[in-house]
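Below is a filled-in request sheet from our internal design queue. Each sheet records the structural input a requester submitted and the sequence that came back. We keep these sheets so that new team members can see what a complete request looks like end to end.

REQUESTER: design group, bay 2
PRIORITY: normal
MODE: inverse folding
CHAIN LENGTH: 225
BACKBONE (tokenized):
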């Protein structure tokens, strides 16, 4: 409306565009620095308090449920609109994040376990190469968690093992109140963790359960084919 009003008053198009963009920036800046800042800070504080309460009183159950739901959210495309914003909320003051640790356990390590199983015991010769690439990115970069989805979707037992592995790892994270971050390799998370033993136990569970199940299921497939 402002742009139309300026154009109707014979203001040059370039000047009208600059004025409209500048006014929009001022309005947004004022809103963010006043009203929205108060709302955002309130939401952040509420989330942190709720997270602390659930971790303290229902650590294992809370961790199991949240970690299992993270697998579901990632598969169904909810990661960037739910999980990632929660990580950022926790890390706004520069601290590590429980949601970041869940990301590492439920997504990165589960994917690494399933991909490594297909590297060691591939059902088809061609899948070893793609699984090796997925595992490499999981291991060195803490990313490309969708690499394991084809192997999960073709076998219901591998799919279940991903949920169970993520859940058990999350339960350990809930008990130890572990914190980490996303998009870094798991071994770096261990180095940054204040509770390294609990971190290693949680990661072994998240990685080991789907890895073992995927290896067994691949062997069963090869034996029956």
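RETURNED SEQUENCE:
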């Amino acid at each position: 409306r402002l742009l139309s009003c300026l154009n109707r008053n014979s203001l040059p198009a370039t000047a009208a565009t600059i004025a409209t963009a500048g006014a929009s920036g001022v309005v947004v800046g004022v809103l963010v620095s006043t009203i929205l800042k108060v709302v955002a800070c309130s939401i952040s504080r509420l989330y942190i308090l709720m997270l602390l309460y659930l971790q303290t009183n229902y650590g294992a159950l809370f961790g199991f449920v949240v970690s299992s739901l993270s697998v579901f959210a990632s598969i169904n495309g909810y990661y960037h609109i739910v999980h990632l914003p929660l990580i950022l909320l926790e890390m706004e003051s520069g601290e590590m994040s429980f949601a970041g640790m869940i990301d590492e356990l439920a997504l990165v390590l589960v994917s690494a376990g399933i991909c490594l199983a297909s590297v060691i015991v591939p059902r088809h010769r061609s899948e070893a190469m793609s699984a090796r690439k997925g595992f490499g990115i999981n291991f060195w970069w803490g990313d490309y968690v969708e690499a394991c989805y084809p192997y999960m979707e073709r076998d219901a037992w591998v799919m279940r093992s991903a949920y169970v592995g993520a859940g058990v790892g999350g339960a350990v994270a809930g008990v130890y109140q572990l914190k980490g971050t996303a998009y870094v390799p798991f071994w770096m998370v261990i180095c940054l963790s204040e509770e390294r033993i609990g971190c290693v136990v949680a990661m072994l569970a998240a990685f080991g359960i789907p890895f073992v199940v995927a290896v067994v299921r691949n062997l069963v497939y090869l034996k029956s084919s």
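SHEET NOTES:
- The mean pLDDT is 88.
- The CA atoms of residues 165 and 206 lie 4 Å apart.
FILED BY: M.R.
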